[in-house]
UniProtKB/TrEMBL annotation:
Residues in Acetyl-coenzyme A synthetase N-terminal domain copies: 21-73
Record family assignment: Belongs to the ATP-dependent AMP-binding enzyme family.
Superkingdom classification of source: Archaea
Pfam families: ACAS_N, AMP-binding, AMP-binding_C
UniProt protein name: Acetyl-coenzyme A synthetase
Amino acids binding ATP: G377, E378, P379, D401, T402, W403, W404, Q405, T406, D492, R507, R518
EC number, as in UniProt: 6.2.1.1
Keywords linked to the UniProt accession: Acetylation, ATP-binding, Ligase, Magnesium, Metal-binding, Nucleotide-binding
Naturally occurring in which organism (per UniProt): Ignicoccus islandicus DSM 13165
Length: 639
């Protein structure tokens, strides 16, 4: 790695203040003092007795403390000069605009909290939110935590089956949805998907349907209610439920190495403090900012940096409902110009897409309001980094490449302009944040020398850390805390360079990232095998110029089925319907046999090597060499 060449020119002349180093040192020496100072900037109904308690894999944060997330995100500001400040600026896909002040949002949340109570939702109950990117989705989230219930937001791109699976796992009592949503100018009926899912979800007692499109939807008497009808009669104030710091605030499902998605549990106090601190350090959030995080609220990035992070700071968060390039490839840049967006946080896959459309779409707009750019979700390749820096940031905005996960709750490794901006190197997330003890280790858990690939681990507890997998404590321990006892295993490969900068090198497990979306290979393979024609399936990722990674499947068929283009198309649709459009395979290859070891394990490594044209490596454990030849022929044929 040619480090010096890659150092960003604007920060080359920056004189180091040493503040970051000092803060990192202090946070590790006195974590309790360090985190309590930050926690004290927020409101606690009852103070904590202990900042961190327990030992791996079970930690508790701010033990004994009582607080409420919605109080901190809203009431605190409503009582201040921020009362009439914009909390949410929202633009719909057709161009309709809404602005909700802190006071207005607070009122909506209070009323909806009462609606939920009237539906019988109590502290600890689960509420599934399956909604488009509309302000009511945020209202639903905040109202849920206001009454001490637990939200589980399911990305609106998931299929009925995916939704049902998540509702059942959480045993949700209420589902909040909308009649429909815009998707590239077309109206998509969401309620139909919900109805389909609800055929197999006995725990659901009520459904609240927000009217986004005015569609005529099926309403089941005694189960389905219109949002507006319920809000009309709702009382205007709901006293926040003061919950214990470790009380779960939400569950968020993500993919792992097994077939079933895992419900990651986040607490209240620790999560709140972690998100609050990182919003300040990484985005250097200010009162006159218009912060735009482009993630959907169905992902952790949306939870932490569309909703909770900005609102905890009393900042203005921008939400956009539609597709990034609809109706034209300059939609995003027109939004930046129109509202004067100051901090833009997005994923490399979007940047690569805009790069392909070309600079002419960017140059139509005045982007001078931008002061900071962010990237998240997958490694950013230097070409995309430089393009983002040059054409979007006009060579004046630092880029914060932020590494973190659904499980970590908030940003863990990133430049921190809010503390001290260090020279940036395109493709490196720089250093762990203060208080984050990240390390790169070998198979035995020992730190590796500089410039050597190893596993990324976190050696100490951090505030926003996950607190288990919903309903599966054993999987929690096995997945995260067993590979290296006492350390949290991230599942990522990483490397540190001579300056101690971290470079994230991709997943070390069977998780793939398609356009920043996290998918498990086993989840995909199970979906293939559920089709009547499929006998076995192996899924691997191949590099993709825009999406980062794309899905390639190798499939063997059952007796009586023949490979054909129609079947290939049918399988593609099957996967879309089973998981969702994000999981649509790029290539499907039919083979008579998959390459396996003599003990019957599918050799995905060999499949990966074939599709990327790399050396096949050691084949001594392979059961049948002919299977590899067949895979090679299948790949050649289709390309
Ligand atoms: O592999 C890492 C990659 O995304 C994974 C986490 O995915 P998810 O839980 O969906 O959360 C994404 C948004 C926080 C990580 O294990 N990843 C995330 N950020 C980066 C990244 N890889 C490289 N660089 C990043 N900045």
């Amino acid at each position: 790695m040619e480090e010096s060449k890659n150092v960003l020119p604007i920060t080359q002349g920056v004189v180091p203040t040493g503040k970051l180093k000092e803060m990192r040192k202090r946070a590790l020496e006195d974590p309790e003092g360090f985190w309590s100072e930050i926690a004290n900037e927020l409101y606690w109904k009852k103070g904590w007795e202990k900042v961190i308690d327990g030992e791996a894999p079970y930690f508790k944060w701010f033990v004994g403390g009582k607080t409420n997330l919605s109080y901190n995100a809203l009431d605190r500001h409503v009582k201040s000069w921020r009362k009439n400040k914009a909390a949410i600026i929202w633009e719909g896909e057709p161009g309709d605009v809404r602005v909700l002040t802190y006071y207005q949002l607070w009122k909506e949340v209070n009323k909806f909290a009462n609606v939920l109570k009237d539906l019988g939702v109590k502290k600890g109950d689960r509420v599934t939110i399956y909604m488009p990117m509309v302000p009511e989705a945020v209202v639903a989230m905040l109202a849920t935590v206001r009454i001490g219930a637990i939200h589980s937001v399911v990305f609106s791109g998931f299929s009925a089956k995916g939704l049902a699976e998540r509702i059942n796992d959480a045993q949700a009592k209420v589902v909040i949805t909308a009649d429909g949503m815009w998707r590239r100018g077309k109206k998509l009926n969401l309620k139909d998907i919900v109805d389909k899912a609800l055929q197999e979800t006995p725990s659901v007692e009520s459904v609240v349907v927000y009217n986004r499109l005015g569609l005529e939807v099926n309403m089941e008497e005694g189960r389905d209610y219109k949002w507006d009808d319920l809000m009309e009669g709702a009382k205007t104030y709901a006293e926040p439920e003061w919950v214990e710091s470790e009380h779960p605030s939400f569950i968020l499902y993500t993919s792992g190495t097994t077939g079933k998605p895992k419900g990651i549990i986040h607490d209240t106090g620790g999560y709140m403090v972690g998100v609050y601190a990182t919003m300040k350090w990484v985005f250097d959030i200010r009162d006159d900012d218009i912060h735009w995080c482009t993630a959907d609220i169905g992902w952790i990035t949306g939870h932490s940096y569309v909703v909770y992070g900005p609102l905890l700071h009393g900042a203005t968060t921008l939400m956009y409902e539609g597709a990034p390039d609809y109706p034209k490839p300059d939609r995003w840049w027109s939004i930046v110009e129109k509202y004067g967006v100051t901090t833009l946080y997005t994923a490399p896959t979007a940047i690569r897409m805009f790069m392909r459309y070309g600079e002419k779409w960017v140059e139509k707009h005045d982007l001078s309001s931008l002061r900071l750019l962010g990237s998240v979700g997958e490694p950013i390749n230097p070409e995309a980094w430089w393009w983002y820096y040059k054409y979007i940031g006009k060579e004046k905005c630092p880029i914060v490449d932020t590494w973190w996960q659904t499980e970590t709750g908030h940003i863990m490794i990133s430049p921190v302009p809010g503390i001290e901006l260090v020279p940036l190197k395109p493709g490196s997330a720089t250093y762990p944040l203060p208080g984050i003890d990240a390390e790169v280790v070998d198979e035995n858990g020992n730190p590796v020398p500089p410039n050597t690939r190893g596993y990324l681990v976190i050696r100490r507890p951090w505030p926003g850390m996950l607190h288990g997998i919903w309903g599966d404590p054993e999987r929690y321990v096995r997945t995260y805390w067993s590979k290296f006892p006492g350390m949290y295993f991230t599942g990522d490969y990483a490397m540190k360079d001579n300056d101690g900068y971290f470079w994230i090198l991709g997943r070390a497990d069977d998780v793939i990232k398609v356009a920043g979306h996290r998918l498990g290979t086993l989840e995909l393979e199970s979906a293939f095998v559920a089709h009547p024609a499929v006998s076995e399936a192996a899924v691997v990722a191949k590099p993709h110029p825009v999406k980062g990674e794309a899905i390639v499947a190798f499939v063997t068929l059952k007796e009586g089925y023949q490979p054909s283009d129609e079947l290939r198309e049918e399988l593609r649709k099957w996967i879309r319907d089973t998981i969702g459009p994000v999981a649509t395979p790029e290539e499907i290859h039919f083979v008579s046999k998959l390459p396996k070891t003599r003990s019957g394990k599918i050799m995905r490594r060999v499949l990966r090597a074939v599709i990327t044209g790399q050396q096949l490596g050691d084949l001594s454990t392979l059961e049948d060499e002919a299977s590899v030849e067949e895979v090679k022929r299948a790949v050649e044929q289709l390309r």
